Protein 1
Amino acid sequence: MGFTLGIRREDKNKWERRVPIIPSHVRELKEKHGIETIIQPSPIRIFKDEEFESAGAILDEDLSSSSIVFAVKEIPIKFLQTGKKYVFFSHTIKGQSYNMPMLRKMMELGCTLIDYEKITDKNGCRLVFFGKFAGLAGMIDTLWAYGQRMKWIGINTPFSEIKQTIHYNDLNQTREHLKKIGEKIKRDGLPESLTPFIVGFAGYGNVSSGAQEILDILPVKEIRPTQLEAIHENFSSKVVYKVIFKEEDIVEPVSSEEEFNLQEYYDQPHLYRSIFQNYIRRLSILMNCIYWDKQYPRLVTKEFLEENLTGHLKLQVIGDISVDINGAIEFTEKSTTPDNPIFVYNPIRDDVIEGYKGNGIVVMAVDNLPCELPKESSQAFSDSLLPFIPSIIKADYSVSFELLELPPEIKNAMILHQGKLTPNYQYINRFL
């Protein structure tokens, strides 16, 4: 064979039905670029084996004859092959301890690794991503969780009619259902005890825009963080209020003489402290859509929750789409799965119980939300990846990294070349 790509089946769990390259793009790669595709069979993939075969792909367990293997999630160590080139979400760029053994093995085997997460434009904006679909599914699941929680408390809301993402046929069906719920809110309003009903979004990137797209199906009015106090004096029960928090809303300089500077905050977060507690009490739902690392302040701490839960804390549900364990939401103690997406954190006992019942706050923390919308998310992902595939496949990887000819977006996303960390990723050595 000439140029051949391999597509590995996803088998991380029963919910992972996505694919990085869809059948119509397999056909296009063959007809326009002469690139063959070998794909492993899968009984659960959202696109059937027959659809790939009809598009010209070869169905085979053995991907060894392919030039490069594409996948969505990490590839288990036992499947890695000597000198092979791989493209997938490696979850290694923060030095994640659970994936360091995989990265070490890839280095031992002389593998090349390109990570979708680092395929960005010159401004650092991601070009190949599932993030929007994490937001879409995460918002649906969080509204479902709020409806169930309120029902358990004894308050009936239109949100109790919302289903989990996995129980809708597709995104269109979800949208149609939410439109009807929105009409009900516009006509009858929400229970007085819950109003003003305010959904806060921490972050404004792809994930946040996906979550907002779902909320915006309802009768939404956007307000600024500075309006949160005033809106409690004059509000409508027939509206869902939306507020978006940017970095300058979440933190302030430690020195009162300094002004907020975004680049300085990114580079020297120790010069800033959180002021997010000023807003938490006003929110009904918080959607966490931010990138977080341990040098940054948290959004909600265990201490804050313990101090405020005994009073009337309006906040009932947090949709933690980012799912950093004990991260921005300190009490995100674990990730959850689509069939069991939520838990209640009790700050007094510092423990969690499954589901939406019990004293505390409900957390939605599904860590692979896009797999709840497998068809739509695979389509969009493949659309964004397709322009890069021919150059990834046809590059000569036998040359040194300096001489390797690839689009800059792809070359900057290469974590390993011939088993060695590339210049941008030398820092990972300290985690190995």
Protein 2
Amino acid sequence: MTLLDMPPTATPPVVSLGATRVLAGASHHHAVSYAEHRALAGPLVYRTHAWLCDAARQVRLLGRGGAAFPVATKLAALVPGPATGVLVNGSESDPASHKDRVLMRSAPHRVIDGAMVVGAALGTARITIAVHDPLAARALADACRERGDAAAVRIAVTAAGFVGGEIRAVLNAVEGRPAVPDGRPVLPTERGLDGTPTFASNAETFAQLGLLAVLGTSGYADVGTASEPGTSLGTLLGDVPRPGVAEIAHGTSLDLLTGATGDRPVLLGGYHGTWSRERGLRLDRAALREHGLDWGAGVLAVLPRATCPLGEVARVARWLAAESAGQCGPCVFGLAAIADDLTRLHAGRPVDVSALHRRLGLIAGRGACGHPAGAVRFVASAVTAFSDEVRAHAGGGCGRPVLGSLPLPGRAA
């Protein structure tokens, strides 16, 4: 069974790799109840703002939403008080990533625990969980009703969309404005919910903070590496030994997760990520950055041999172009032109590949938000990693069908 064959409402399987803490007790069959959760997690432990900042710094906790921003820095930027906001960004917007949806659907109390811990540390009851997935929203709402301490938690259902998952877009959506990023990059710690300073991060980050509060720094660092203690959630996708969502100890070999891929490129990080032929890599964000790579949205994907890689990339490029917020030229015109080039190239029609490379270079680093740069990273690395396929299609094609192996909305959960 692969994630690619699942109906939109199905929950991907939880893959056990031995380091299960955030996903303890989780299953794709049902959500962990509050009684089950407390039996597994123990009593919820509240911490002070100073303790949480120091603990997050000691375990080098990085945000799990893709940017990997140091959590301690974000927490320390906020002054505790009742006007401060807490925003859980549950708007997982990359179609290849399922980790946050599995977490919210199957272990919602982990997310709520983290939100409650952060709220208490900041001295505020203003906690909002923004989510676009209906099953996740229902699981979180049911979980809040199960427990006596989460009555004030607000579940805000927002619009889906790739750019709509960016934190400034989520803030706009929660407050009833269009779900697109503002042109000015104002941090939520300066201006967030209702214009007040807000601690905002994705669902997995909050689950990790709740775990840290309970375990303490030494217990949290029992797994992982000295440079990056703990675990991260990831989506293992396509032609891999065990497709699904896994909790992975830092330091784990990525080759172990992807299996014997031969010389096939691996997509690391999702649809704003990078295709790479590197082998011998481990889940360690600092080490990955030394290779020009990033864990990003926590996706590891390997295409089946039976599908046409260039056709798969062209499909995703077309979708990425359509996801533009329409706020800047590099996104509106540049991504569409790139998708057109890839579509023509896949069809065996004449394309100036050197001009395509130049166009990719012109868009990189530009735009009103991170979408153009992320889309270009995905496409540019694919053109390089699948250079043999590019040459084959320039000569007429590879002869393989496009199976739709890279999930797009409507094809996967």
Protein 3
Amino acid sequence: MKQSILFYKAEKEAPKEADTVSHKLLLRGGFVDQLISGVYSFLPLGLLVSKKICNVIREEMNAIGGQELFLPTLQPKSIWEQTDRWEHMDPPLFKLKDRHEKELALGPTHEEVITQLAAKKISSYRDLPLYLYQIQTKFRNEMRFSGGLLRTREFMMKDLYSFHTDMQDFQEYYKKVANTYFKIFKRCGLESIMVEASGLGFTNDFTHEFQVLSEAGEDTIIYCPKCEFARNKEIAELKEGDKCPDCSRFLKIARGIEIGNIFPLGEKYAKAFNLYFLDKDGQKKLVIMGCYGIGIGRLMAAVIEKNHDEDGMIWPKEIAPFAVHLLSFDHENAKVRKVSDRIYQDLQKAGIEVLYDDRIKVSPGQKLAESDLIGIPVRLIVSEKNIGKNKVGLKYRDKKTESLASISSIKTILKKW
């Protein structure tokens, strides 16, 4: 992609209402644009990152047997009445009427839709277990929205639903999903902890959240720095300085960003939609269900909160919008332009994603500042001074120092990286 035609504009200052690091940097870097409070447009750079995150999630969901589908956003009142959530959902549903005066809701979640669908397809133990997931837009009628992508009213979410013959099978898969979540977040450049939390209206059982410790987070976590004990403060009966019930180490308290959650749904939704199966003995039984979510935009924001410096974002390799940022200094210079063009074409042929800053009448200082802001992992600098030595400047975004590399070695260096 040539930067001269990229749809973005870097800003020196973020709007005053931007209150977190990720919010400020995403707006300044031209990754997102705010339409109204809590609602954002994803611009090309932001959408590239979002797609990379979705690809990581798809790979890991498919690896544990998930099958992807896509469910409707518009949902009829009737299915929400079957679970008594039309009037009692918190936050309340976005409701509307069509031209036939039929009442509908914009889906904040898809338990009702997926369960009535599964009831049409599942009849025997031979149909189970089953794992279905989607990546789709959700709508939450939140009272307040802050922190940019950390709390919004419209957002992309991966939700996986699992269907089982018994609790043992469910519990085994629940653990498998938990381990997979750790892998997903690790691939996205985050260390997460699994925190026990309340069901928040989805289930009466305790659930688990995956949290990234950050001052930008809205949740308060009581956790043990030695073992895996961690609870959301809303259910914790312990406080900082108390002894961990599992290992006796002193507990700590911290803020956290919730980037994923897993729920045991049990038989609640199966009962509401008559989701039964016949077991090996011909006995009719209710299907056991689980639910597992990841917010795409919130995950993106959390990555920035944990991967940035005073100059801008530092994207992890796997989800960066591009692998390489190629900067052509003094692009009006025919020699510089020729070498830059050749490097750009060679990297593209090698399958390396490149953002090529080919802009004219933009100073080297501005190009460097915007490159730091955008945070692409590897920077190559073509200048008249460097090409006189048959070299280019090479800098990794997460390092302070820059080195020189021969032009002929660039592809080899990047493929090993």
Protein 4
Amino acid sequence: MPAAAAKRRGARLVAAVLALALLGGLGAAAVVGAQAGKPRLDWRPHFAFANRYIKHRAGSVSYGVVNTNGFYHGHRGGRTVPMASTFKVMLLATYLRKARHRHLRHSDRRLLAPMIRRSDNIAATRVRDIVGRHAIERLARDAHMRHFHYDQVWGLSRTSASDQARFMYRFDRYVPKRHDGYARHLLASIVPSQRWGIAKVPLHGWRLHFKGGWGIGNGSVDHQVAFLDRRGYRIAVAIMTTSDPGHGYGKQTLKGVARRLLWGLPRLRSG
């Protein structure tokens, strides 16, 4: 082989190796858009805006965000907190995984709908008893949760904003395809009395799927985990607050952080 041709071939090989390494570093989620032929949507959450707001709020706040290109950023994202009712999203996914080979019956929906839409604790405990600890922990491992710790009192199970933002971004991976539409429907139809925080932020046509957690409603815990999607693009957010002066104050903090993180969210044409 002539020297020049060999040199060109070597350069192409190096370029290919570098490209593969780059894709591996970004992770599968970061290149979903490229694989599907979608253009990159280079919107970035307004971290500095949110962090300035947090400095002036009582209580302790952490958050994690995954943007439209699959990149994660967080503020104290590894801080662990009691999950409260955000745990119910994991219960939903675990239950649907257990039912992956069959259609959902009326009895399934009678448990899952109140657990998610109006945060029914009795339904959640029944679901936990049906799926069991090992299946829940298997989901946490599959989702690469680094900070999840199960507790028999399910609301005291611990997690972090980084775990939950990444989980919500890839939520469809952990729910069987046959049940994905139903899971989305539940997370998109939370009852009006629980649509606070991020649900009060203008989202410019993006569809919101979320769940809140607020303990006993005294401000000790106020969280929200969510994903937003539109035309094949997705954003995920987890905001965790603890030691708020009250539940109303915690809800206001969640709204304030979400509004600032999502400032300038691009308006995408329908279709």
